[in-house]
Design a protein that fits this description.
CATH topology of the largest domain in chain A: Dihydrodipicolinate Reductase, domain 2
Domain Semialdehyde dehydrogenase NAD-binding (chains A, B, C, D): 4-123
InterPro entries (chains A, B, C, D): AGPR (IPR050085), AGPR_dimerisation_dom (IPR058924), AGPR_type-1 (IPR000706), NAD(P)-bd_dom_sf (IPR036291), Semialdehyde_DH_NAD-bd (IPR000534)
Order of helices and strands of chain A: EHEHHEEHEEHEHEHEHEEHEEEH
Number of strands of chain A: 14
Catalytic activity (chains A, B, C, D): N-acetyl-L-glutamate 5-semialdehyde + phosphate + NADP(+) = N-acetyl-L-glutamyl 5-phosphate + NADPH + H(+)
Shape of chain A: globular
CATH architecture of the largest domain in chain A: 2-Layer Sandwich
CATH superfamily of the largest domain in chain A: Dihydrodipicolinate Reductase, domain 2
Largest sheet of chain A: 7 strands, parallel
EC number (chains A, B, C, D): 1.2.1.38
Oligomer: homotetramer
Pathway (chains A, B, C, D): Amino-acid biosynthesis; L-arginine biosynthesis; N(2)-acetyl-L-ornithine from L-glutamate: step 3/4
Strand order of the largest sheet of chain A: 3-2-1-4-5-7-6
Distance between the termini of chain A: 35 Å
Number of helices of chain A: 10
Radius of gyration of chain A: 19 Å
Chain lengths: 324, 324, 324, 324
């Protein structure tokens, strides 16, 4: 079975990772690529390793009402730039929006595929979670649904590689300024907070208004680690057991009993979660690791598209992480 | 005035940074260098840029009862290796212990030079704070002495460059395994916790038993950032004002109103602190940045030695950070 | 068709990359893993992302006369450690030696798969080229066989990522000492020189005694670039054309008209070659890029094994490079 | 003695490094800073560690005919942007042009301070060498003046950290695209070639038309290494001896008998040179290391200004390199 897919935002980091995954997918065939500045060039001009026919595909100027015949569209557009345009795409085309405009928006399913895969099956409009939220939510979900932590008292200290800032980063994301540097930013007002609050409340049934979120830029290209400080009286083993049960059938979430490192997930769709608790201090530390471009963007998007199309969830996503 | 100084542990990262600072110090003259594996070699064999006479100084085998005539000894030995040996050094020699064996030990002053400089003046035995604690304590001190946060409810998420692991790091600290990687470790049981707890209690007069400390290895050579989550109803401005008053006469602590980056301190003895508060959520975030080998080790040690010797606190420490 | 394969040296970087590729191979099934220090542990203890049955495979102590029933053995042992042992392996087992002991040794085929694939088909003992030589030889081959450069007057300035030093690197390869550092080494006496000289002479039919080789350690984990300065009167286009003809049927060698970057090959079995010539100065610059663990080690080894087993050369090697 | 100095181009990397060095200089006092985009802001807004009065200095809009009373101007402007403007500065102001517009231009002295310091003493217009040329020329000078290599047959393989691209680098110099990447560029047509050719011809008295120059971007912030392949029959010891005699009185050039690493010079005005020769192959390899922002830009500029002002050459430049 061949499913015809397109990518808009192909020259960005998320779009490029989607291209890499789709090129190795057993059922998806890339027939359409679109962009803005890159329109008119061929894929090989941006991805020098591409083989054969794919290399010669010409990037088209993005126009939501002039799409070729495709079954699935991966949209990797800057947040704020996709809402109007995607509304004009034919309902016959399934869309996964990797960008931020449709998270918890009416008419769109929030695609937290490892937590609620059944909700995504057969949908035609799915919003991919943000990179920070996906790591956070996967690690917290087993604790929240089992009542092991207080949903209103969670601190998320998040660390991300710099590709999270996107290709069009500008001088603030130059090598010289970021190498040998660690940069906190966006304290108390990050754009990802409402999304996380909504998910926590949905999973726990209680308010998450106390959520604290502090992101940091780490001098590496890929990878996200979230270190979360929660209140609860569970032991480390109780947390691990809850997660193992929760992710018993998961192809992508690994529950482990030591602190996970970001490189363990690099280039893959895997997520690692772990926990360290101290009941005497009413403390549960939860850790989540993903590749921000894999499970945090394009990997998650392909996983969602697999579910939407009735394919095996793992199709095209079985590549192991790159080490070292 | 020339003060004769020695360094033991010269071939480690802390000892090497002490050498760099002492070589540029207006009053200190390095006349003695000692080590273990490096004994018998010259300084130039380890530090290829050294000029003139200093280059030819031969490293001696460390023997605490066979020291030449020196006024100050900088001891940069692995934790656990210095207590017995330093007890045998003549009382005529002032000692700054950069290692971990004498922090809050009877007969030794805890050298938190930016917080209690007067206690250090004229002392002969000073224990340098650990690299994580110095960043933590400098940022928290103004909040604790002014009662702006609860001392029993502090979470410290700490991030360090890899030189903090020391030169003899072994395969776990290889470039290939650490580049593009972010590694949490030592959750709930780091060796630096008792030191921080003691300082917090001393500054606040209340128990700090609830302290949570989680360190992370960041793929950079130098730099520490601590992000601290505290409970309190102060505003951001109240926190900044308290810190500005507290460090009004400080030569090295910079209080700023935006999140500090580790590279701002690189190669210097500076510390940067900042705060972001949300009274509605009873939340105060405190940030502290140091160079782990500067203010976190050798810079702080020279600052302590200056105070012990009655010199200007800033002697030899006025070099600006390296940027970029 | 399932071909049973084993890896010895599984915990090293080359062995680990072989594991990653074999796990995604359509015909190879890993049934045996061996090591020294790692014997007795499971694969999951070293590769946290491994799925299912593979994760639980126990690493055995390497014993060449006690192998289970396997068809192919990938040997990734330190140079000097494999010759005696591999001589004792049953002739029924095909061997690809990723280590350095059998390059241009009687009874072994030198596995330069992109240049002479036909020589490798059906063999049972194949020596993988070294990482520097494979990049060098792939870029030079079209020039040498077409007589476009003087074989006796070639300068190879080679740059490698630090994983080339292997997992057991020691303090000399620590992050702190190598980050922000560029290190030339082994000038005029690198162990890879005889191998390159032999290949150049074989391809050109003339002496390569004038070969100059200078390697450099670059602060990155993966990747090799060789910049070669040759004498010849060809134009840039003549060089590119010769290479395009030479690699016309190649699945892995990309001939391009701009300088290739190491990251273009990262995680893949691709090689990139390019040329810039100035006939007025009798100068041809040849450039070659590979991933030292891909085409420079495990990727090349799988390619050789495919040829030895009569499989499609590309089986298990179609993954695109990781970008960024 | 206080000498009043100004910097134009203060917010660039070269200007910032000049600021750092001048702040620690015993005789220079910074009284004027100018820029384009940064005009109107204070120095502290760009350099958060600056102390006291310097921190509050307001950056002015660059206007060559409206300078305050200064003795020395350091000009760090983009190549192409400084020629007209600097021609309009009063002759009473000494100028060191760190940019590229006045190298080997009439009326300007080429400031290769370690090779011909006497030519610079007392001058009022000095052009700082480029970062690649300064490393190249310092390493080659002893060989050229002693006739140990053929001046017409030199290959320069140059590797630089990414700060060499300047602060306004744009997306091509982003962290994500450059980390874990090694990038050759500008083959056969780099802007620095004429400058090197002129110096080689001046030192040797013969044509350098055969010069080959190939630059590479290395994923590190600071540092330059040039590896040069020359023709000559000298031994390694003859080359080292020639260099030791040539730099006998040099404060900054270190001649060593092992390959130098870029980090040895980091943050300093040092240059390291070494040689490895093979008379049987008529080969001399010359190696040169500098910090591209130190000896390759601002350090060299301060050294030139010291000579122009009749100060000790080393004033303000005695800081040792940062290690690690």
């Amino acid at each position: 079975m061949s499913i015809r897919v397109g990518i808009v935002g192909i020259s960005g980091f998320g779009g490029g990772e989607a291209l890499r995954l789709i090129a190795g997918h057993p059922h998806f065939e890339l027939v359409y690529a679109a962009g803005e500045g890159s329109a008119g060039s061929r894929l090989i001009d941006h991805f020098p390793g591409l083989p054969g026919k794919l290399a010669e595909l010409v990037i088209e100027r993005w126009d939501p009402v002039a799409l070729p015949e495709i079954d699935v569209l991966f949209a990797s557009l800057p947040t704020g730039a996709s809402a109007d345009a995607l509304a004009r795409v034919s309902r016959d085309v399934k869309i996964v929006d990797i960008g931020g405009d449709h998270r918890y928006v009416d008419g769109w399913t929030y695609g937290l595929a490892d937590v609620w895969p059944d909700e995504i099956k057969g949908q035609t409009r799915v919003a991919n979670p943000g990179c920070f939220p996906v790591a956070t939510q996967i690690a917290l979900a087993p604790l929240l649904v089992n009542g092991l932590i207080e949903p209103g008292n969670i601190v998320v200290d998040a660390k991300t590689g710099i590709s999270g800032a996107g290709r069009g980063g500008g001088g603030g994301f130059s090598f010289a300024a970021n190498n040998e540097n660690l940069v906190p930013y966006g304290l108390l007002r990050h754009v990802h907070m409402p999304e996380m609050t909504t998910t926590i409340e949905r999973l726990s049934g209680a308010s998450a208004a106390g959520l604290v979120f502090a992101p940091h830029l780490v001098p590496m290209t890929r990878g996200i680690l979230v270190t979360m400080y929660c209140r609860g009286s569970a032991t480390t083993d109780q947390c691990l057991d809850a997660a193992r049960r929760f992710y018993n059938n998961s192809a992508f979430v690994r529950v482990i009993d030591k602190p996970p490192q970001t490189k363990w997930a690099s280039g893959s769709n895997l997520a690692f979660v772990s926990y360290a608790a101290d009941p005497e201090r009413n403390l549960v530390i939860a850790l989540g690791v993903v590749d921000n471009l894999g499970k945090g963007a394009a990997g998650q998007a392909v996983q969602n598209a697999n579910l939407m199309c009735g394919l095996a969830e793992t199709a095209g996503l079985e590549g192991l992480p790159i080490w070292p």
